[in-house]
Amino acid sequence: MAIAGAATTSPFLGHIPFHFGKSSSLHFIHNSVCIFKVKALFWGSTRNVNPADNLLSYSQGDAGTREKRSICVFSSISEGSPGNPSSRSAGGAKRTVLITGVSRGLGKALALELAKRGHCIIGCGRSQDKLNALQAELASATYSASENKHLLMNVDVSLNSSVEEFARAVMEKKSVPDIIVNSAGAINRNNKLWEVPAEEFDSVIDTNLKGTANVLRHFIPLMLEKKQGVIINMSSAWGRSGAAQVAPYCASKWAVEGLTRSVAKELPPGMAAVALNPGVIYTDMLQSCFGNSASLYQTPESWAPVAANMILNLTIADNGASLSV
Ligand SMILES: NC(=O)c1ccc[n+]([C@@H]2O[C@H](COP(=O)([O-])OP(=O)(O)OC[C@H]3O[C@@H](n4cnc5c(N)ncnc54)[C@H](OP(=O)(O)O)[C@@H]3O)[C@@H](O)[C@H]2O)c1
User: Fold this and answer.
1) 45, 161, 181, 183, best to mutate for ligand 1 pocket (most atoms within 8 Å of CB)
2) Phi, psi torsion values for 239, nearest 5 degrees
3) Which ligand 1 atom is at minimum distance from the Cα of 281?
4) Is the CB of 186 under 6 A from ligand 1?
5) Which of 49, 67, 207, 267 has the fewest CB atoms below 10 angstroms from its CB?
6) Distance from Cα 182 to the centre of ligand 1, integer Å
């Protein structure tokens, strides 16, 4: 039985919201035992979900992929409460974190979370008004004036020349990133591959794949001098599975996974690159592919502390891994 566009809170899974996209199907087996084939819950991973399963412990990686679930990383979750400087950056030095796509969504929430903890943000996006607003928000999230050295720039990551200019500006400020989070991303409007206009396909690949490569091309050389640094390339469950309606996006995220694993083999000791599936979070992007049921998912603000803990705790032992928040 196909259920088109319905959304519900599953009675079988307590608080965990379900979204049934066009391709979801519901099978009744024997009397009342039902198995949901859920495509959307993990962004496209088709999996028979038995209600008795513990979804939170489900590991998304393919065979041979190391998985780490940040769900367990709660030790420093209160780190950086603005009124408590002694707790700031607990367990680690202040880092300079470059995040692409900071004007909205996950990039913005992560930037604010890390700034609250005393880390310095270098960010980019294309919407100048949103960057201006974030600059002010970062300043008020930052504890002291000396920590308020955040740099936001209008950069289109899909353009090599724009990223090159970004790297030059960062170098002039002598603030080489310790951590890079390639979060800027785009998704195609839900459509079958043959109905996606060529320009839209290009735009998804240019942003998600070439954008990530552009950033690595211009920033890894800066990091090489210090022979240290961690690179996080935002992937997706749809970078590890297939899904109808979002083939260009899936293709771009599979490519990000391959790019990351390969670059990981090129980095010198002391550096690491990982692909990170952030989970399912209510942002403009989720709204685009899930429609109204996107609002059933966690907010970027509730996601950011967990993601920040995970990102700050990555080490060179994680090099080449495909991880999930
Ligand atoms: N939300 C989820 O549930 C989810 C799940 C799996 C993976 N992800 C991944 O997580 C990342 C963040 O997603 P999101 O949900 O936060 O998306 P979002 O809300 O749509 O935000 C996308 C961000 O990327 C920026 N951006 C897009 N194209 C850009 C370009 N060419 N140059 C520079 N910046 C650009 C946008 O800023 P401007 O428009 O100002 O340029 C915006 O800040 C993406 O890589 C996405 O694929 C998200």
Assistant:
1) 183
2) -100, 5
3) 3
4) yes
5) 67
6) 9
d(Cα 86, Cα 201) in Å, to the nearest integer? 48
- Asked whether the beta carbons of 247 and 239 are under 8 A apart, the reply is no
Q: Is the Cα torsion angle 117, 118, 122, 126 positive or negative in sign? A: positive
In the chain, DSSP assigns E strands to 6-9, 17-20, 25-29, 33-38, 47-49, 96-100, 120-125, 151-154, 179-182, 229-234, 271-277, 322-324
What SS3 class is residue 109?
A: helix
Helix (H) or strand (E) holding 72: none
- Give pLDDT tens digits for 38-79: 334 334 333 332 222 222 222 333 333 444 433 322 222 233
Return all residues near 286 (Cβ < 8 A) that are at least 6 apart: 280, 294, 297
Q: Name the helix (H) or strand (E) containing 243.
A: none
Query: Is residue 249 annotated as a catalytic residue, yes or no?
Result: yes
What are the respective helix, strand and coil percentages of the chain, to the nearest 5? 40, 20, 40
Tokens of 279: 């989970």
Indicate if ligand 1 lies below 6 Å from the C-beta of 127.
yes
In this structure, the residue with its CA closest to atom 5 of ligand 1 is: 280
Task: Tell me if 197 sits within 8 A of 245, measured CB to CB.
Answer: no
Is 0.90 topped by the overall pTM?
no
Which two structure tokens, joined as six digits, stand for 22?
């066009």
Q: In which band, very low, low, confident or very high, does the pLDDT at 175 lie, cut at 50, 70 and 90?
A: confident
Determine the distance separating the centroid of ligand 1 and the alpha carbon of 254, expressed in angstroms. 16
Q: Which two tokens stand for residue 99?
A: 């995040």
52 exposed, middle or buried (CB, 10 Å; 0-12, 13-18, 19+)?
exposed
Q: Write down the residue that tokens 């800027």 correspond to.
A: 184
